[in-house]
Amino acid sequence: MDDAGPLYLDHAATSPVRREVLEAMWPYLSSEFGNPSSHHAAGESAARALDWARSTVAAVLGCRASEIVFTGGGTEANNLAIKGVALARPRGRHVVISAVEHPSVLESCAYLERFHGFEVARLPVDSYGLVAPADFEAALHEDTTLASVMYANNEIGTVQPIAELAGIGRAVGVPFHSDAVQAAGWLPLDVDGLGVDALTLAGHKLGAPKGIGVLFCRARIPLEPVLHGGGQERGRRSGTQDVAGAVGLATALVLADDERKAGADALGRLRDEFIARILAGVQGSTLTGHPSLRLAGSASFCFAGTSGEAVLLELERRGVLVSSGSACAAGSSDPSPVLLAIGVEPELAQTAVRFTFGAQIERAQLLAVADAVEASVAAVRGIR
Ligand SMILES: Cc1ncc(COP(=O)(O)O)c(C=O)c1O
Predict the structure, then answer these.
(1) Predicted ipTM?
(2) 182 lines ligand 1 (CB under 6 A)
(3) Which of 264, 328, 335, 338: disulfide with 349, CB 3.0–4.6 Å?
(4) Ligand 1 binding pocket includes 150 (Cβ within 6 Å)
(5) Domain 19-255 belongs to what architecture?
(6) pTM higher than 0.90
């Protein structure tokens, strides 16, 4: 957008590693490089760092350190939650999820259906992407093994009523997992306040590197490992731990959570102003997702009469990097299942563009982006 290079508005895809995070990680990539399972000074130093990371994450979540499992990212944590809880639980073969979950949840459930005889209820959502608590309650029965509903959606930013849904699950003894990969840094993660039994986080949405994640799983919920081997992470996830990654994730989580407490309201107001500008300035634009129950750093639209890909390219020419649909489904030209689930027509779904920003965004930048969007949509419509 200016001499500083393009303006990156695709934080829901991934975020840059923060300097403080890199600095916290550096010793564990260099001088303190030991394997935390080794019984010598180098290993013990790495083990202490891992303990620090675990208790730091646990403090943000309000849980015990022993309930934190470090994984190789959000996808792995979701696989471990869904498959691990489902396969460990003696009760039933029935899983309840929403229709708008991330593929790592959807595909884990499809695997349980295909290979383990589970039945999966995929709850519809309303036009904002919300699960109705009454539908959720009706879907649970005495054979339900596990329920999983994401905290906030990666494509449309809609925030689900997690505490209410988890409470419904708790009342009938169904363990409740939530994928909080997109929510982390924007919304409270206190697991007791939310009432969840399991929660997924991913470092790279928070200013830590890709390839490190967390699964919180309550001590009383049995968890069958997905990765078998040396028994690290109390047998729940074998494989030598990424100590530097864990330290990075913990550092990023604390920074993001402190900033959230200080600034989420102001950022939400900026987002609202940006959304209002686009809706007023770009004819034929519609907001996807909920107008207020949405992540403070997320604005997503359809621009009728365009293609999302073409708008993305025009915006890139103007120095703004965004996403058309979801980067997680990269390579797919099918309309987004999330947009179809909220009732967007397939043709309109192809026009989707998502803007996701970090906490450092400035008002002037977003207003300039709104102008760039107007020009880009006009250019695409002119071409088409
Ligand atoms: C909601 C959600 N869950 C899970 C994931 C997967 O996380 P990872 O990329 O760390 O595997 C993503 C990634 O975009 C996501 O947005």
Answers:
(1) 0.99
(2) yes
(3) 335
(4) yes
(5) 3-Layer(aba) Sandwich (3.40)
(6) yes
